[in-house]
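Lab manual, section 2.4: Encoding a predicted structure.

Procedure: take the sequence of the chain (117 residues), apply the prediction step described in section 2.3, and record the output as structure tokens. A sample record is shown.
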Amino acid sequence: MINALLVIQIILAILIVIVVLLQKSSSIGLGVYSGSNDSVFGAKGPASFMAKVTMFLGLLFLINTISLGYVYNKSHNKSILDDNRAKSLIPAVPLNTLEPVKPIAPLAPTLPSQEAK
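Recorded output:
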């Protein structure tokens, strides 16, 4: 189930990139369709059609992301602290048996001896 949702997620991401790149922008961009192809998408042209496709793909991407997170969390309901490697990083010494660390006093500065005259 997770693998199928992950494949759908990758396909949706690629489709969103393609649809966004096909849209006309204020600059030249990658707007492949122009001129006579505008009539294929309706009276208003491809702008509203491509915007609707982008919104629809974005909604599918969002729903798939949420469902992928839910299914993954449900099947892998495990914390990183449950792993044996993570337990080895945590010290096994109880905190109440530790002695407090005594601070070391700084050394007093020494003056050069007057015997060196």
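Check your result against the sample. The chain has a mean pLDDT of 74.
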